[in-house]
Amino acid sequence: MPEKLVMRDWLSIREWLEPRLPNIRYVSVDIFDTILGRYVGDPQEVQLAVCRAVAERTGIAAEEVWLARQQAEQALRAEAVQAGADHECSYSKLLPRWIKTMGAGAIPELAAFIRQTELDLETATLYVKPDAQVFLDWVQEQKIEIIAMSDMYLDGDLIRELLRRKGIVSYFTFIYVSADFGMGKYSGRLFRQMLKVKGVDASQVAHIGDNPVSDRRMACREGIQGVWLYEKADLRRRERQALSARMAQRGGIWQGRYFFECVQVRSQQQDGLKPRHFFFRYGRDVLGPAFSVFMQGLQERLQQQAAAKQPVEKLLFVARDGFLFERMYQAAGGRIPSAYVYLSRRVITAASTADGLTREQARVAFYNPKQRGLESVCKVYGLPAEELRPLASEYGFQDFAEPIHDWEDVRLHNFLQDQQVQAIIRRVGQQHKSLLQRYLEQVGFFSHQRVALVDIGWNGTVQKFLKQAFGQRQDFPVLHGYYFAFVPKMYADFGDNNICEGIVHDARRGNACERIPAEFEEMFEQGARSQEATTVGYRERNGVIEPVLKADTAPDRQAELACNILVTQMQQGILHHWEHFRVVQRLTGYDSRQVLPYVYGLLERAVVYPTREEARELTKLAHTEDFGHDHVLELGNRALRWRDLLHPRQLMRRLELSAWRYALFDRMPAGIANFAFRMVYLHTVKK
Amino acid sequence: MVLSPAKLFVYALAFRFSSGRGRCFSPGLKAMAVWYAVRFRQFLFDRSAAKWWRAKFERC
């Protein structure tokens, strides 16, 4: 007589089984939720995702496809019961009936497409439980045959394929599926069938499964030793995920929350045991969601363009922050030809002096608090300081590196009025412009009707100046700028056929909640940037225009090089997230707009309410500008203490100068100071 | 990566108290109440534990 066995883990089962091995010939295991776990709370998610894919393929509404499937399945189950079998239906019978019910029989190869999609999505939602695999290894070493048994609508050959894809099919000598035999474990008939086929006594079989009725009670009734695998933590997780899935139907942040819960479960199951560095975790858990939703939004916009018969023909990922986005695009198997292009504000502004330098242009160099007068102007616009220095001294600039705080400085005015000065500037500017133009021709910029620039943001300077410098060319393409965050503070008019859009944040939408990336831009730039130095110009070599990068000896570049290892870890984390994001997106069918509200909350937490570890680690990064200055922005500052509140002026000054204000409060408990400062700040910014 | 609804609600309050626009990542008071009520019910009436007790007292 079988014992009543409820086991909490695979190790306990092994301990129980070990002394009884001489009497056991077969170990039978349930497949789903026993050997294979699911990343989603509700297995129905897979069927719904298949219906969405079918709807997309056939043009029939997804709800109708789902209804047709339900009708076909119910009819088949009812017929099986009438025929005296169990309430079972097999996929091989369901598929033609389903296609017929939705009236899509004329669509070629639809059955093969549905079958393949269902198999792909099932594979994507399942994982092999590590403990279960250890147990299967052990049983195999004991030379005992393992049988798989499942109450499932998928036929045996599909289950076999699933197990093959998961790399565990070789453990099993036979697979009994209710769909093949028309009988289930829940009635005990599948157990009887197995005993009959194998010609074995029930006492020589042990069956393990997660269902207390089908896998334990019914097995015991047939004389088989049934073991109920009671994995409490797994059951609670599934219950929690099922609740999240129900809440997701309410919309708002709940969809995003459910979405990222699935991503997290998937990521933890595959990667949870590996010790990960802080920067990897930060990339995976904070920047990963933000950049992934941006890439998802980008793909949606490209699809919309294609649907409107105005397809983007070439994607240009702009250096240096487009580096990560290009890698993410390639990882997702993007079909539009793409390239990583060496453009920077520096080379663009240098080309803009082809017609001379105005006072307004010169002022741009003085925005930086560490500016060094005419020397900064030369650096920003790539002008020859040694040629201009003697001319400058004629106008009273004894020290070429003297900071210019008075923007109406008469000396500057007279210096820029000098024809000789302007001639030098124009000559150099035209060289810059010519090289830039040839570089753009080389990367195919002018060879397409519609080109998209992809960058992190913020003002769209590159896009603005490209149009300004080369917009008169007949072959200048319609230009789309897709930015992670678009904050057009410097320019309002981008001209005709020059479209800009911020996908995660667009200041023109006027939504205060989404402007969080603009409050710590440096973090996002660090997460996306290439390891290479910024582009400072171009040179011709063997008829090819190649970028000239800033020298590694520059002080800001030295600081950058020291941080490259941390940036690499962060980007590995982001790409890890992106891999799981794509699978969950396919499964849930959510678009970027559905996920974005939650991502804003996630970023609000990360920027405004950082943990101590985040404040400590992230401030190790050195941030550099690519605008000609050799300037390193310190992200870290000494944390505020209570006594700092006694000196409000000094406190305000420190807050103003800090790149990441909220990190200064990390010594104050419970985030109360962050909350208070956030409110004050939101009051002061333009609503 | 997965934030509690209560935290999101508090973060959104900073917007509500300042600009009056805190809806975009607020879970909503009603939905949050439903969430915590269901979680509390799940805690009190643990279905998996009930199954375990049922199996324990059931005849083999």
From TrEMBL, chain A:
InterPro entries reported for this sequence: HAD-like_sf, HAD_sf
Pfam families: Hydrolase
MF terms in GO: hydrolase activity
Domain of life: Bacteria
Keyword Membrane: no
Keywords attached to this entry: Hydrolase
Hydrolase in keyword set: yes
Annotated protein name in UniProt: HAD family hydrolase
Automatic annotation (TrEMBL), chain B:
Source organism superkingdom: Bacteria
The protein, known as: Membrane protein insertion efficiency factor YidD
Protein's organism: Candidatus Thiothrix phosphatis
Organism classification: Bacteria, Pseudomonadati, Pseudomonadota, Gammaproteobacteria, Thiotrichales
